[in-house]
Amino acid sequence: MQRQENRTGMPDGLKSGLESLSGADLSDVRVHRNSSQPAQLNALAYAQGNDIHLGPGQEQHLPHEAWHVVQQREGRVQPTMQMQGVDINDDVGLESEADRMGDQALSIGRDG
What we know:
Layout (H helix, E strand, L loop, with lengths): L11 H11 L7 E3 L4 H4 L4 E4 L2 E4 L7 H12 L7 E3 L2 E3 L3 H20 L1
Parallel strand pairs: 1-3
Antiparallel strand pairs: 2-3, 4-5
């Protein structure tokens, strides 16, 4: 079986680590670097659907935001507020999990 080229914008190791932990195929995720959209929400980065928006110089948030994509796909993210017409979830438990699992995915990707 031929491996599909990674066109997500995520480093290969991070993508494979996330997929290994979640069991999800993340080949349809797209990373938008140097995006102006997070600033409109007073954020450094955010994930919505299959799109991850990283503000300028915010690459370090990619693993965390990528795990939010997984959480959203699992149906565990419900809006807790709205800002600029965009649904936002600021659940502390989901944020903590995204930190932990994003770091773990990076680790697996490096070792794998």
